[in-house]
Amino acid sequence: MAALARAGYFGVEPPGRTLELLRTLQAYGPFGATPRIAALRHGDRPAIRDEAGEITFAELDALAGRLANALVARGLGPGSTIGILCRNHRMPLAAAFAASRAGISAVWLNTAFSAPQLREVAAREGVDLLVHDAEFDGLVAGLAPRHGRLRCLGEGDPATTAADDMEAALAAAGTGTPPPPASPGRIVLLTSGTTGTPKGAPRAEPRSLTIPGALLDRMPLRAREATVIGPPVFHGTGLVLALLTLALGSTLVLRRHFDPARLLDDVERHRATAICVVPVMLQRVLALGDEELARRDLRSLRVAFCAGAQLPGDVATRTMDRLGDVVYNLYGSTEVSVATLATPADLRAAPTTVGRPALGSRVRVLGDDGREVPAGRSGRIFVGTASPFEGYTGGGGKEVVDGLLATGDVGHLDAAGRLHVEGRDDDMIVSGGENVFPQEVEELLLAHPGIADVAAVGVQDDAFGQRLRAFVVLDPGAVVTGEQVRDLVRSNLAAYKVPREVAFVEEIPRNPTGKILRRELVRRPLS
Question: Scanning 137, 220, 319, 322, which has its CA 20 to 30 A from the CA of 277?
């Protein structure tokens, strides 16, 4: 609570407003109540700035209310589910708030889905109505949810029928908000899908303020500032910081597409104190060069919140060398929520760490026998949090030991209690009887001054079972040979970790949150 009060998450309110805030929270739960509480406390302050302009907290609350009415008018209610397939702008957030207020569950869909993936996930999650950007008209053409679709128009998008367009549906909806439901709708985030079809991981309304408390306990975010969001809000990384920003009464800056130069421009223009990024976004910011970074006034920046994929130690260090000690690296997942959080001091001391357990989280590293291993020894990572995973919507779940959930990662705790993630359990390859985690090789190669990006994968080998293959993206104008890549690994790591093959490519395939799509690389033939 002290961290929340320090950040301005709470404030001293007149008695009448305090009573109204409590009633709102009781009626709609922490998620659905977010825009109403922010409107009561921050009113005419700008809530969201996107390509459509600016919207205040009062306007965002009214928008969520009208949209809740529109959903109810369509015949949706408790037990119904909407799907949200949108880029970053005000409407997907308003739709999620509206659904929660009406007792409707909301599934956040990945904008990188193919049409077959979208159909499969929508059917499995029971999507009754789809909210989507007009740019995805072709992608959703084969979907026919029983309550139809609502299109969000962007600049230059043509309107169609009044029944399909969001603006028309909102114009016909009444003001106010439907009566509070017996219970708010659930939030359903999807897993990244890097190892298979994305799964739905539903969460009930949070029962406490542990997640914002865990973040504000270590990050110097304050009320009534500004945050620039880089990753898609359909993923937990972008969504959690977007919600925290709005709850603080700070302005949320959203762009439909990420651009590193524009991210820096937005920091300067809005005097943003925080950015939300995934590691590959920091790599692209650094790739702009020192001159581009220096020509902008970025002194307002205090927090670069990074999550969603493994942050290479070299990227963390170089970012802080150029932007100051602002990097906060979170480790978690759709299933376990917030597990650990590394501060700039942690990253200076141990650049590859993901930090110590966050407030309300328990982290254990267990051996094959299920017992905790000593510091420095590798094992499987298990996490327990205050926001428990309910199981996948299609059935199944994760292994649980003593109330702790398996993350699927392997790592170790150091002597200071900081967690280090060595790689995914299913990414590990066995070459000639030796265990190899590609991430260790990638970390080393990324520190090379001529290498912009890299991925290492295991491919089948008749003699050794598997062998390591490295895919390398060079900086413009850089000249690096395959033998130089192998020599660098050979000089720093064990011989069995040296890639047998090195392929130079234009880009590494990644999902929208920056995770490497290793399956695509394994199938890719060498040219």
Answer: 137
